[in-house]
Design a protein that fits this description.
- The chain contains eight helices and ten strands.
- By secondary structure, the chain is α/β, with parallel strands linked by helices.
- The protein has a single domain, classed as 3-Layer(aba) Sandwich (Rossmann fold), CATH 3.40.50.300.
- Strands 6-7-8-3-9-10 form a six-stranded mixed sheet, sandwiched between helices. A four-stranded antiparallel sheet has the order 2-1-4-5, with helices on one face.
- Bound molecules: adenosine-5'-diphosphate and magnesium ion.
- The site of magnesium ion has 2 residues, from α1.
């Protein structure tokens, strides 16, 4: 089978934080390719650099050195305005603690990415309802976040990540704050999105969660130490 097109590539991506007089090397020469419809997990112990990598790939932070290519364009050194454009038009981000705005309804929370986008969106409410429908939360569109369970909040935040029809969804420990039942629900939802063609990159430190993806990228001390398909990934090929 021919390989799918590459969405995202990093070359010798490195990030060093300066803490007082000390350098913390959070990423060391990371080479990575994410292809269309990948369902990849970044797995590693706490402090191994997973969030740093996700924040850089998600246009929320910039590398110290190395290259990032997104849909064929070199985005390693783009301005913060351009990064904001990528965030609101090309990717979706899911956080461990949901990051929903407490005063806004579920529907308005899902519409938020449109307010950051300078482009005119046709029928924004309809698009938001469509995203809520996908995650099974349309019946809660008029609730506010604190009227929902943790699992429901995470599904709303996934709807918010989907609303701009992103090329990639990045999820940093999306199941970390959920109980077993809701972990299962979120993973089932990701499965369904991947079957529908979505590309997902998820961070976890939980091997059980990682094995639900198609590919596991293992990190240790800021470097990739292994990158392999899971049994599910092999079956899906
Ligand atoms: N803003 C920061 N300033 C200084 N050091 C940081 C900062 N963010 C993360 N680090 C350090 O970088 C390393 C990687 O952190 P992180 O990417 O958050 O790891 P993970 O998500 O795998 O737990 C850790 O040693 C952490 O302490
Ligand atoms: Mg982290």
């Amino acid at each position: 089978m021919p390989e799918k097109p590459v969405i995202l590539e990093t070359q010798k991506l490195s990030k060093t934080y300066r803490l007082g007089n000390e350098d913390v090397r959070a990423l060391r020469d990371v080479d990575l390719k994410i292809r269309e419809n990948d369902y990849a997990v970044i797995l590693g112990a706490s402090g191994s650099g997973k969030s740093t990598l996700m924040h850089i790939l998600g246009f929320m932070d910039t590398p110290t050195s190395g290259k990032i290519i997104f849909d064929g364009a070199d985005v390693s050194r783009i301005s913060s305005n351009k990064r904001a454009w990528y965030r609101s038009n090309r990717i979706g981000f899911v956080f461990q603690t949901f990051n929903l705005l407490p005063r806004l309804s579920v529907l308005k929370n899902v519409m938020l990415p449109f307010s950051y986008s300078r482009e005119k969106i046709e029928n924004p409410e309809g698009r938001a309802r469509e995203a809520l429908e996908k995650v099974g939360m349309l019946h809660r569109q008029n609730h506010v976040p604190n009227q929902l369970s943790g699992g429901e909040r995470q599904r709303v935040s996934i709807a918010r990540a989907l609303v701009n029809r992103p090329r990639v969804i990045f999820a940093d420990e999306p199941t970390g704050a959920l109980d077993v039942k809701n972990v299962k629900k979120v993973l089932e939802l990701f499965d369904e999105l991947v079957r529908g063609g979505q590309t997902i990159v998820m961070v976890t430190h939980d091997l059980g969660v990682a094995n639900c993806a198609h590919r596991i990228i293992r990190m240790s001390d800021g470097a990739i130490i292994e990158d392999a398909l899971t049994q599910k990934g092999m079956a899906a090929q």
